[in-house]
Design brief:
Chain lengths: 463, 463
């Protein structure tokens, strides 16, 4: 029997697919985009329906007590360029499910992907996992319809669980949010519902290069795929593609052992004295609530705002909700380098206020460059200029992708993979091999959501 | 060069030692116990010096704002036998260092152990790691003396870091407490200070069988030793010792793969809807503050009490502090079984209110049996009767050992390893191989402190 990681690698090499080729996919997707609409309208915060601003604290909560809350957060990081601040933050303690169902057709694994609109998507429809459900969602607090295919993930007996791990989301905007990232393989017949399609991993990888198409939830689940099989199928050449594929194999040795990487993460987590405390939202300083938004006095970072959504093809047709609207397009750049013929990625262990466990591995550079107009010079991330000035010839991946459209309004990040030939050194950074990142992704709280997107992008370069 | 895990296994086989044989050790230790004293006297809570009860909240805090705080905790676990309760808890967010220095003498690794009194030890002196220091300790908030050997752990350059991982402590008594468990190997000369001795791992293993000798901090560090080398040195026989040793080797396959174990832990962590909230100490219900203690109305569980300590051989000679005094001796039993010639331990994934991440692997049975007089029948742990009624012929390890004597007053637990021949099944339990537990111990938050003691005890049975 072919192992699941070999099946995954074979699927990554297949860009034809048993159901739709890529031109068919684009026609199908464009057709859906025509039928399906999501009208999102900015409304005053006081016009939120079913949501209340608590008089004592200023916190924004749902009448059911479920979904999520907008709280304040007090953040202390002694020694940091900005050692103390307060900010609004989304508090969503429920663990939702992000699940991709996979099944073999014609000897190739296909992934069941969903064309799904989200109110915060800049372009309405994006390609999401089979299932993307908060606990409130699937316990139907909102009284909506059933979540299709959910049962495959809630009761996995009789199926093969390929991955099942809770992963963090944006620690700058979410307080200790985790979602359960699952991949479940089935052999039985699966009914194909409207708005869903079967694609090979190779096809999904090609689509990653299309701006704002593969959504964040799909990308994080993809990053959790056991990807070691790419090593077996790699060529022996020294082209970039072969080198990346070989570096996904489990036998490849990096400049640091996994134990060394774990000890370095321990060290950063102990050295960084992050302490955070939820506070009433009206106690955040330098933020002001106006009719339409809670805004930082500089106009930077993000706003807390409110929308009214009218949608077709979603569980509930009309609703209002608060969202976070980031200011400016983010940048997430992963610098990679061949060392002894093995690809290494230069990752940073960095703290984000919403992380459960202080620090996680993040891209080489992760920031919103526009924010540095109002931040001290020391806050400028190391290697930002390297990323901004990378010559076109060194860029291996480049696309602008959206973050989660259910909580964030038009949240776009430029994801770039840059190959360099020089050694870089910094105590908060290490050179790690792609298969070491995949090894860490078997556990929670090691690789942040932006780095997970870049792991998925790096995997897309193996075939 | 011999790998560190082989060196560790060789040291485990050596019960002679280059410095002290075991009779010498006992004489040396008894001599120290005669000279060194710790007088601990129970005092009224209001007689605490340097500690205050905050008027608003009833919380007990140190004047410096450092060390630790006694807070209240509100615990919700829907579906649990006791679904909701409140309790006092020790809140100590600082990450301290528990470190053992190791060095080769005569071709054998020796561990630098310290004879150290703690106010809560029932017998004064116990054998502790080389370094056992809170951050307040080593940044000298208390104005005491330097912590000997600390620099080896604060600056490891030039040495070999054998282990460095933060691990949780008692989740029933501590709120999200973690200590950094470190093992550092040095080759340079090390001055041997009064109160310290070099022992082989084999000697330490023998001493684990002595009641109240190897302290909790030493046991948790021991559990983090890379122990795979025992597999190489094991005999081929089917005696218990050989089977345990072989099952420490990395190549041995268990009934579950490591990925399956990780997915099961994810599942338990998602299924268990633990939510906790720090509350003012005076808001805990069913607990009453009297002159000498904060006590549960049933007289069970534990008291918060206060002591005055007069000690020789400690950084500060006289001080007062609050402590937790558990009622009754705890039981921590690990049921093991040979499956296909490989030893498996039956571990439970269970929630404790103070855990950072919901649930960790715990012994088969972990409880204070006396508490069940006042708890609902459904709260009685599975397999408790099996552990209590185990025939003598099935018991492979049995000792009463102390928990941390710096925060807990006379906290004793009977640690037992029981071999069975029957299959046991329960959704919250899995059969795991010792080397899988050691693999998990490279990460934080997987194996709780009682299970870590039992890992160290299990390792002691390999030679």
């Amino acid at each position: 029997m072919t192992s699941i990681s070999t099946q995954i690698a074979l699927s990554a090499h297949d860009v034809e697919g048993a159901h739709l080729d890529l031109p068919d996919f684009h026609r199908w997707f464009a057709g859906l985009a025509d039928q399906c609409y999501t009208h999102t309208r900015r409304i005053p915060l006081d016009a939120l329906d079913g949501w209340h601003t608590l008089p004592g604290s200023g916190d924004i909560v749902h009448a059911s007590g479920k979904f999520f809350t907008v709280n304040g957060l007090d953040v202390d990081i002694p020694g940091n360029a900005v050692p103390h601040w307060t900010q609004p933050i989304i508090n969503q303690p429920e663990v939702g499910i992000l699940g991709i169902l996979v099944k073999e057709f014609g000897g190739r694994l296909h992934l069941l992907m969903q064309a799904k609109p989200e109110p915060g998507n800049p372009n309405g429809l994006q390609l999401s996992p089979t299932v993307q459900a908060t606990r409130s969602n699937y316990t139907r607090v909102h009284g909506g319809q059933d979540v299709p295919y959910l049962d495959y993930f809630r009761d996995t007996s009789g199926h093969t669980v390929v991955a099942d791990v809770r992963q963090s989301e944006q620690g700058a905007w979410f307080y200790r949010k985790r979602n359960r990232n699952m991949i479940v393989s089935v052999s039985e017949d699966v009914e194909l519902l409207d708005g869903f399609c079967w694609l090979t991993l190779g096809q999904v990888h090609r689509l990653l290069l299309v701006d704002d198409l593969i959504n964040m939830d799909a990308r994080t689940v993809l990053s959790c795929l056991p990807f070691a099989g790419a090593g077996e199928l790699s060529g022996t050449g020294d082209g970039f593609r072969d080198v990346v594929a070989r570096s996904c194999g489990p036998a490849v040795r990096g400049v640091h052992s996994e134990d060394e990487i774990l000890r370095w993460i321990t060290d950063v987590r102990v050295r960084t004295e992050l302490s955070t405390r939820l506070i009433p939202l009206h106690e955040v300083r330098d933020w002001h609530r106006t009719e339409y938004a809670i805004t930082h006095e500089t106009g930077r970072f993000f706003d807390v705002m409110a929308v009214e959504v009218r949608a077709s093809g979603r569980e509930v047709r009309t609703w209002t909700q608060p969202m976070i609207e980031p200011h400016g397009t983010g940048l997430a750049a992963l610098v990679v380098r061949r060392i002894g013929g093995v690809l290494h990625a230069f990752v940073r262990a960095s703290a984000e206020p919403g992380f459960l466990d202080v620090a996680e591995l993040s891209p080489t550079v992760q920031c919103t460059p526009a924010n540095f107009d109002v931040l001290p010079a020391a806050a400028r991330p190391p290697f930002l200029d390297l990323a901004l000035n990378a010559p076109a010839s060194s860029i291996r991946f480049d696309a602008v992708l959206s973050e989660e459209g259910g909580r964030f309004f038009h949240p776009r990040t430029r994801y770039v993979i840059i190959e360099v030939d020089e050694d870089l050194e910094h105590p908060d950074f290490r050179w790690v091999v792609p298969h070491q990142l995949v090894g860490l992704l078997r556990h929670s709280h090691y690789v942040n959501v932006q780095a997970r997107t870049l792991v998925a992008c790096l995997h897309s370069l193996t075939s």
